[in-house]
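Open question from group meeting: does this chain pack into something compact, or does most of it stay loose? Before anyone orders reagents, we agreed to write out a predicted structure and look at it together. Recording both the input and the output here so the notebook holds the full record.
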Amino acid sequence: MSMPAHALNVAVASPPTSYTKVAVAMHWLIALLIFLNVGLGFFMETFPKKAPGHDEVLFYHASFGSLIFMLAVFRLFWRSTHKPPVLPSTIPAWQRGLAHTLHWVLYSLMLLVPLTGYLHRMAGGHPVSFFGLGNLPVLIGKDEPLRLLTDTLHVSLVWVLCTLVVGHIGAALKHRLIDRDGVIQRMLRA
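Structure tokens returned:
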């Protein structure tokens, strides 16, 4: 038995040409918070731990780091349920592969950098307050070797993150100013 012709006309959704409004908002909000928190971290390192204001800067640095982690988890959930726009076929396959890999490494760093900071604070025996609303759960006890390890990991991962963010911005500018292929507009309009 054959199906009528009109029954076979199934709407095929075309791939999106832009990121969703939520994805765009998350991108720019997390980017702003990363710039802010990296700045706070560098600022915090410029004065002794006993100096007035050090603990306040650390409080905000840890709170913003926790917020970045939470937003990154939400962003990954959103990404898993909303297909991102495909890159134009005019972009060579190796560049598409590199862009895809870079995005997933950036997502990973948005989780790993705050997580290592969180573990560092706990291993130092310090609670992590979330903007004074309450402390985050204490998952481990004081552990000096782990504190030193997580400090090194945290700082190293921040430098990797900063390097990749500069590369990400450079690639976006290349697409905007040299290639003029509309790739950057996908994150500017929704």
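Observations to bring back to the group:
Residues 55 and 93 are 48 Å apart (CA to CA).
The helical segments are 5-8, 21-44, 54-81, 93-123, 144-179.
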